[in-house]
Design goal:
By secondary structure, this protein is of the alpha/beta class. About 45% of the residues lie in helices and about 20% in strands.
Length: about 325
Amino acid sequence: MRKRILTAMMAGVLACSMLYGCGSSQEPSENSGGSASEENAEQAAAQGDGYEFIFVCPIVGMEYWNMCSDGIEQADNELGTSTQIVGPTDASTFTTEIANYMEAAISSQPDAIMGYSGLEVMGPLIDKATELGIPYLAIDSDAPDSSRFAYIGTDPYNAGYQSGEGMAELTGGTAKVAVLCSSLSSEKEMEEVEAFKDAVADYDIEILAMEETNGDLATAVTKMEALVSTYPEMTAVLGTSAYDVQAAAKVKEERGLDDLVLVGYDDQEETLNYIRDGIIGGVVVQDPYTMGYEGVRLLKEYLDNGSVEQEVYDTGTIFVTIDNVDSYRD
């Protein structure tokens, strides 16, 4: 069993990125004694062989990733594992900062690592972890050319195709579309955009422009405002991350662009409210809770058995509109 020892150099980097809302832990009181809860914790640790994992999260504290973290916490509680969650908290710089957190995770020598993997910088780092004997599971976005042992998350092509089908239905098959994406270097998002194009290929739907937002709401609002000014003929927007479609919705509402059709991703509560109000037409909803829960289970299974049953685990998607916004989780 590897013992995690964070280097002094990286301790400052990781300190503010610990999960569960960067909350503080509470020490047990001196009078607590040997309680049943302590015995349960010891039994759970024995069941999970005391495995220690690290999840390299792209944006700690973001609602989407909090749902993933909830799944991780539940799996840890059930399986007796322990997962440390680290990562940037600033969406505007996550594409560069995430490499530092991955390096730190490798240096701390956990039993295994899982992480967001669809950035070019991650492939060599995944291979580095594997070479050092640290198994790596890709989660939410894949790095199929790396040495990761498996991927769990949304199939990006299926999700992108579903967004295209939704756009075609909501626009009646005729639209001039601008795309807001968090990162042009995200293989997952680019595959989703290509699948979107495939889905609308037989319709009168044209893509006017694609803007990068770094997954930052303020940046996305600025880019959306520029698109509105530059392309007065624009009739629809596709946002490939949660904040992208929210930014489009804010600008649409503020400027009274009632006929602008918006399609995006993820079921943050603000997004769902925009759907209820008729501002966002529909979103492709992923399942980050299952990604987190099953991710921990797969790491344990791999360490226990030396392999897992599949290389790719698709957690599926649902297209949510005003017709099913209050029932899609039933």
